[in-house]
Amino acid sequence: xxxxxxxxxxxxxxxxxxxxxxxxxxxxxxxxxxxxxxxxxxxxxxxxxxxxxxxxxxxxxxxxxxxxxxxxxxxxxxxxxxxxxxxxxxxxxxxxxxxxxxxxxxxxxxxxxxxxxxxxxxxxxxxxxxxxxxxxxxxxxxxxxxxxxxxxxxxxxxxxxxxxxxxxxxxxxxxxxxxxxxxxxxxxxxxxxxxxxxxxxxxxxxxxxxxxxxxxxxxxxxxxxxxxxxxxxxxxxxxxxxxxxxxxxxxxxxxxxxxxxxxxxxxxxxxxxxxxxxxxxxxxxxxxxxxxxxxxxxxxxxxxxxxxxxxxxxxxxxxxxxxxxxxxxxxxxxxxxxxxxxxxxxxxxxxxxxxxxxxxxxxxxxxxxxxxxxxxxxxxxxxxxxxxxxxxxxxxxxxxxxxxxxxxxxxxxxxxxxxxxxxxxxxxxxxxxxxxxxxxxxxxxxxxxxxxxxxxxxxxxxxxxxxxxxxxxxxxxxxxxxxxxxxxxxxxxxxxxxxxxxx
Length: 503
Hints:
The chain has 15 helices and 14 strands. By secondary structure, it is α/β, with parallel strands linked by helices. The protein has three domains: 1-93, Winged helix-like DNA-binding domain superfamily/Winged helix DNA-binding domain (Arc Repressor Mutant, subunit A, Orthogonal Bundle); 130-167 and 391-503, Alpha-Beta Complex (Aspartate Aminotransferase, domain 1); 175-390, Aspartate Aminotransferase, domain 2, CATH 3.40.640. Strand 4, helix 8 (237-245) and strand 5 form a beta-alpha-beta unit. The relative contact order is 0.12.
């Protein structure tokens, strides 16, 4: 390997117009020269005084750069001998390997753990998507989820944030309980017992960073590699991701007008490790699991020792009657792990949700949580606890329930007026979205892609099936959009559909 002789040093360019500090430019220049072997082990560097004079800069940035190089072990300094490239660095520069044409963009499968290879294989086979598609990218109508952010009480929230900022003390700087802030856990437990008929106390409530982390954490606790898991088909793609990432083997179980078809699931896989279900508002078809199905599922799970993961992502939003009581509230054998979130009822960036954990599983959930991220940020938990305790959360839910009901009505009316002969509305009695099914042969992915090009975000129903889609349609969020936006979005959809012939 050719290196420069002792008296000649590589030029380190200095850009005086750059926002990058001079010391950082010098540090990075010499570090790169050492790593790339343009400076060899033992080669002397100029004195800080002479280098500063040569570059016509202050000596201070030169001193700072050399101190950083010394601290990181790239150079060494001895009294009377000056500063030189560290002799302990390897003699051979690691060879850069050009990726082969056949290598995966995420790395060679041979260099990954077995779980990593499975993930790469599933993504290559189209079973895992980095994003659901262009219909998920923007914020225009009818993107899902569609939280009514325009009516969030920002001033109230800001006042609570200010209050907690003023009384912030040093004790809140320490590591905290992985289960979450006690005040918030107690408040959530009381709320769930009252409004969702959940059987729990604060010792079972774990505060997490949204329902997606709740699913990931739950999957890590419950599943071994290749553990079979029932999932609704069609169903929530984010749950499928979390379960697969934990090594679960997904078993697609159909849904009908009563929700998850328990008997079909037993026929397909009689001994799963767990069942993932959205009983209060099935995602995406919108039905509520019937009482007979709920009791059958709980009875079967008790006899088979199966865990049930109940995702109650938007159970507060129901318009025909009172919110449906939770499946967990019917459970007398502690087989249900109940998941809820504030990202739908408040705002997505709050990144707070919760898990109601069966008592026997609490130690396992705590152990896994410690290995993941320790705990959720304490400050925002304290603000949320006051927001709920002071009655703001309940008032917000009442206001947004009425608002979402109005916006749902506007969307149903617009669809009936503009596209009644093309689309049939299903599952519009709850939540912040509704699903439509094509009455003819339109392909929903094609329509959704064309709509995205026109600034309309309609989620294709077929993307939520694991295998062959029985239905083609569009999932349309409405909670975040005013009547004028809804009308305009439906008009654009009509224009798109008018220009596409059914298959």
